[in-house]
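Table S2 (continued). Query chain:
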Amino acid sequence: MHLLNTYFTPFALILTIFAIYFSALDKQTTYITFGILAATFAINWWMSKNEYKFFRWIQKIRVLTVVFNLLITVVIFYLLGSYWAPTWLLFLIAPSASAMFMKRTQVFLIALSAAFLMLGTYYFKSLYLGLELGTVHWAMASIHAIFVILFSLFVNSMSQMILKVRDSSR
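Corresponding output:
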C-alpha cells in the first residue's frame, strides 16, 4: 500500500488540481474536493504507516483501504467529471492497488466494480443534469471501463510474475 501513497495519491492530487485550475468550478465544489483529498491523503497515509501494527488484520485493512479509495473516487468523479474529462483515470487507482496483493479473481471483481461505478456515475449525473448521453459518449465510457479492468489485470499479472521470478531466484 506504500505504492498507493508514492505514485497514485500524487497522481490523483495533480489530476484534481488541474481539474480545479483549468475548469470553471464554483468555490464550494473546489473546497469540498480539496477537503476530500486532504482527508483521503491523511487516512491513506495513516493506514500505510500503521498497517504493520495490526499485522493480524493486514489483508482486511488493505481490502478496506481499496474499497474506501474506490468510494472516494466515485465522489470526486461525480464532483469533477463534468468539468474535466480525464478524471475517469481515478478509477484505475483502487483496482491497480488491489492488483498488487489480491488474487486475480478478486482484482477482477474490484475492477469490474470500479467500471460499473464509473458508468453508474455517468448515468446518475446525466439524469441529475437532465442531459441525454448519446451513443458515442457511452461507447467512450465503455472503453474507459474496459481499460480499467484490463489494466488492473495487467498489473496483477506483472505482480505475480515478479513474485515468481523472486521466488525462483532463492
